[in-house]
């Protein structure tokens, strides 16, 4: 059974940006792509547990602010060293003006 959580207002995230969302002891990163689609991944880098919401978003990638490892936030795939473990990803949907994630 789906557990959809209201994470933020759609307008809280600028195009090609990311915000942090904490829920039930976990940290998530929610992204808005250049084509206005929302995505969600684990919020901590798999390399050294740094918050990805402090990183740089560009061309469907998130760059960790500590060692510049990159992930494709659409799939969670590790793209550039030193990261080698993929991020978990979560379904998103927009209802009205709210972004929901499925946990």
Characterise the protein shown here.
This is Putative Rieske-like ferredoxin MocE. It holds the Pfam family Rieske. Its cofactor is [2Fe-2S] cluster. This protein is mostly beta strands and 103 residues long. The protein has a single domain, classed as Rieske [2Fe-2S] iron-sulphur domain (Rieske Iron-sulfur Protein, 3-layer Sandwich). It is built from no helices and eleven strands. The protein has strands spanning 4-9, 17-23, 26-32, 38-42, 56-58, 61-63, 70-72, 78-80, 89-90, 92-95, 98-102. Strands 2-3-4-9 form a four-stranded antiparallel sheet, with no helix packed on it. A four-stranded antiparallel sheet has the order 5-6-7-8, with no helix packed on it. Strand 3 (26-32) and strand 4 form a beta hairpin. The mean pLDDT is 95.
* Average pLDDT rating: 95
Classify the helix fraction into a percent range.
Answer: under 10%
Low-confidence stretches: none
Provide the spatial order of strands within the biggest beta sheet.
Answer: 2-3-4-9
Q: Assign the CATH architecture.
A: 3-layer Sandwich
The total of helices stands at: 0
């Amino acid at each position: 059974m789906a557990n959809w959580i209201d994470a933020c207002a759609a307008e809280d995230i600028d195009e090609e940006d990311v915000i942090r969302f904490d829920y039930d002891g976990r940290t998530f990163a929610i992204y808005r792509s250049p084509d206005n689609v929302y995505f969600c991944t684990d919020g901590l880098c798999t390399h050294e547990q740094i918050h990805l919401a402090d990183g740089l978003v560009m061309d469907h990638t998130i760059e960790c602010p500590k060692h510049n490892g990159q992930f494709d936030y659409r799939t969670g795939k590790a793209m550039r060293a030193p990261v080698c473990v993929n991020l978990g990803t979560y379904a998103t949907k927009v209802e009205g003006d709210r972004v929901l994630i499925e946990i």
